[in-house]
C-alpha cells in the first residue's frame, strides 16, 4: 500500500513538472490569444498570415487578431486593463506603453519560450541599447533584475516628405529651396499655401498633431529645453525654450499666419493622395509602403522626395526623436498563455526582412540596417543620417499624461490665443505634479 501511495505521488509530481516545463499536457490544451494592434493595412495582412501559419503548426492555439486606430488604442488598452479584460498581446509606442510596464501590467519574457537560455541571449539579438527601455536593469523598476518585458518590431524616426510638383507650382526648386530650418519652413509654407477666405485649400506643411513627444518636443530640445531634467526631479526644463517653441506654433496657427491647425485632415493622409492639398508632411519610413498601396502612380512618379528634420537657426543640431513599437504580453493572463504569447511574438519577429519589404518597418537589428536590401529603399539614407543626430523619445511612468498636457498647451496657444508664457506656466505646474506623484 505504501509503495502504491509513493508511486501515485511520484506520478503527480512528474505530471506537475511536465506541465511547468511546457510538456505535452501543456501543449495540447487549447489556448486562445487575443492580439490588439494599431491599424496598418500592410502589416495587418502580413501578421494575419503569420497567425494563420502559427495556428496551423499549433492546432491547439487560436489567435484573435484585431486592429484599432492609432489615435484610439492608447485609451482602449488601459481601459481594458482596468476592466481585467486586456488582450494577451498588444503594442503601443514606447511613451504610451511604458506607464503600463511601470505598473507591472506587462509579463516578463521567458527566454525558454524563445528557445534561448537567458535574458542576455535575448538582448544580444538586437542593436546596442534597443531593449534598454524595457529591461529592468538593476531591479529598481519591478524587482526582477535583468528581465526583459518587450520585443521591438519597429524602430522609427520621422523625416519630411515633400511633393516636388507643388514646390514647382509655387515657383520653388524642390532640390534647392526645401526648408533646412524652422524659419525656412514658415517662409516656404507662406509661399505655397492657398486659401478660400480663411479656409486653407493647400498647405505647405503641417505638423504631426497628437504624438507631441515624438514630433514636436525635438523643437524644444533644439532650443535647449527638456521634458524632464537629467536627475528626473524637474519637469519642463528651461521655460524660455518652451515659450519660444510655443510662440512658433501660435504664429503658425489660425490666429497667426494661418498655415495649418490640428482641425485639418492629417497631413500624411492628404499627401499620399497627390491632389495638390499639401506639399510636406512628417512621417516615418513606413509611410512609403502606405503610399505605394494608396497611390502607386505617385509612388513611382519620382515627384516626391524626403528631406531631413529642420532645426531652428542657432539651435542644437537635433533631429526628430526615435521611438520604438514593442510587442508586450499581459501579465494578468495565466503564465502558460504568457509563454505561448511570447512564442508567437518571436515567430512573427523571426521575419524581419518581410516586415521591411512589405511594411517598411525597421527591426532594430544591426545586420538588417546595414543590408543592401535596406539601402535600396528610397531615401532610407535620409532616415539613417537623421537617426545619427536624434535622441530617444521621452518615456516614463507619466509620459503619456505629459504628452496630453503638451497637447493642451499647443492647442491653447494655436486655437484659443492663450499666451505662450501662461501656457508654459500651466504646463510646468501640471507636469511637475505628475512627476512628484511618481517619486
Relevant terms:
439 residues, 5-stranded mixed sheet, alpha/beta
As a percent range, the share of helical residues equals 40-55%
Low-confidence stretches: 1-25
**Main sheet attributes: strand count, strand direction, barrel closure:** 5 strands, mixed
Number of strands: 12
The number of helical elements comes to 22
Rg, rounded, reads 24 Å
> SS-based structural class?
alpha/beta
Percent of sequence in beta strands? 15-25%
- Rounded average pLDDT: 91
Give an overview of the whole structure:
- It is a single chain.
- Helix content is 46%, strand content 15%.
- It contains 22 helices and twelve strands.
- The termini are far apart.
- Mean pLDDT is 91; it is low at 1-25.
Topology of this structure?
Blueprint lengths: L1 H19 L3 H5 L2 E8 L2 H17 L3 E8 L4 H10 L6 E5 H9 L16 H5 L27 E7 L1 E5 H6 L4 H4 L4 H11 L1 E3 L2 E7 L6 H4 L1 H6 L3 E3 L6 E3 L1 H14 L14 H7 L4 E6 L2 H9 L1 H4 L4 E4 L14 E8 L5 H14 L3 H8 L6 H4 L2 H4 L4 H8 L11 H17 L4 H19 L1
Parallel strand pairs: 1-2, 1-3, 7-10
Antiparallel strand pairs: 3-12, 4-12, 5-10, 5-11, 6-7, 8-9
Helix pairs in contact: 12-21, 12-22, 21-22
Quick synopsis:
The protein is an alpha/beta fold. The protein is built from 22 helices and twelve strands. 41% of the residues are buried.
